[in-house]
Amino acid sequence: MPLALATTTPGEPEIFASLQGEGPSMGRPSLFMRLSRCNLACQWCDTAYTWRFTGDNRPHRDGLAFERQANQLVLDEDDVVARLLAFAQDRLVVTGGEPLLQAPALARVLAALKAARPELHVEIETNGTVAPSPAIDPLIDQFNVSPKLAHSGNPADLALIPERLAAWAAEPRAFFKFVVASQDDCAEVAALQAQYAIPGARLFVMPEGTDSETLRRREKWLSALALEHGWRMTDRLHIHLYGDTRGT
């Protein structure tokens, strides 16, 4: 079964080496693979080219639609494995889109990678709505779970699934990363933390923004709230280094 990947340019899969820009592994040299397709539609999503294809009218603040043929590339599993093994990094971050939508094929790819390189550390970046399959779960070293708050525009019954949030809170490999755009969003984070007993050591808050000025402005008030609640705060390092660009 093939994998559907995002592209950097038409015909080129979004597989690249960079520094992890967010969360508990921020600053670590990593290999990235961005998969296509998502089951949610965040109105501020900065990778809408992975899901908002022509004909998809789910709301997005930019109102852009992307041609599927230019922005999605389907590759055989063996081809994906070969491309990833060509890089020297010992940390792989699988992002999206929502990677767990393609768990069967992804599990086989990861199994082949770990057989060839047992030391490989694998992170999955997920919106938290999809349970990892029994085949993929033991292959993941770290889950970066980013539940979507009300300001994302997603209905809560789709984005905040109680049994999934409870399962992630109980999973020591799972780190939560909440994207916040206003101080009101932090009240929602605090309520979710209390409801699901999310440990503060595994809870990150991150400002929403795709330029340094916006991130710095929001970090000023977010830092105070992180101190107040005992949360960890994460920047978006890649935005400062490379801007809002693909393959970074």
From TrEMBL:
Binds 1 [4Fe-4S] cluster. The cluster is coordinated with 3 cysteines and an exchangeable S-adenosyl-L-methionine. Keywords: 4Fe-4S, Iron, Iron-sulfur, Lyase, Magnesium, Metal-binding, Queuosine biosynthesis, S-adenosyl-L-methionine. Homodimer. This is 7-carboxy-7-deazaguanine synthase. SUPFAM superfamilies: Radical SAM enzymes. Its cofactor is [4Fe-4S] cluster; S-adenosyl-L-methionine; Mg(2+). It comes from Novosphingobium pokkalii. Substrate binds at L19, Q20, G21, R34, T95. It is an enzyme of class 4 (lyase). CDD domains: Radical_SAM (cd01335).
